[in-house]
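Below: protein 1.
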Amino acid sequence: CIVYLPTGAGKTLVAAMVAAYMKKTNTKKKIFFVCNRIPLVFQQASYIGNQTGLLVGEFCGENRHLFDSQLDSDVLVFTCDFLINLLMTKKIYLEDCCCLIFDEIHH
């Protein structure tokens, strides 16, 4: 599903609600949320956590040292490159994910 709305119309809220629903129906799996820029990782993680009450981990090169401590989060927010590296090094698997959300997909 692609949500195409103008700026400020609620795309991130839609993503947060989808994440909350998917986590509720797939309690053993994680939500992967992929951003194209580091500042968006922190912004979107904060928003999702505030809107849903889910535990959200932030994953990018700037905080890679926190990887192990945040891996048990319900929602994992990554930069694209960080997710690719984790998948290639087999530190996480797509099978662990019940929902994969791409933010700013046009990038």
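Below: protein 2.
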Amino acid sequence: LDTAMLAKVVAQFEEVDPERIGAMGGSQGGGLTLACSALANIKMAAPMYPFLCDYKRVWEMDLAKGAYAEIRDHLRRRHPNHTEAEAFWAKLGYIDNQHLAPRIKAKTLMAVGLMDDICP
């Protein structure tokens, strides 16, 4: 939300053309670029290998290590029998960029690394 709020504030500056505001970033910045583009009037976006997307798929691909280790740790500590795992995934979905993506209207150039095990 901070990135979207910043875009809206910047659009009000006299020296800024609000029809030419863009966003770009890599990894977590790529994830923030997606969120900003979905929540603000961004015209061009360049997210590079965006992080913070489709957590459950990362889990299913057995990549919940490194940057995602907290997911594994949380499930191990709070849901060892996975009885409430679906509720966990539903709650995590509120901050998952995959659900914001349909709102993006900006022209978008996305860079990805197809063998990336951190931002698949």
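The radius of gyration is 16 Å.
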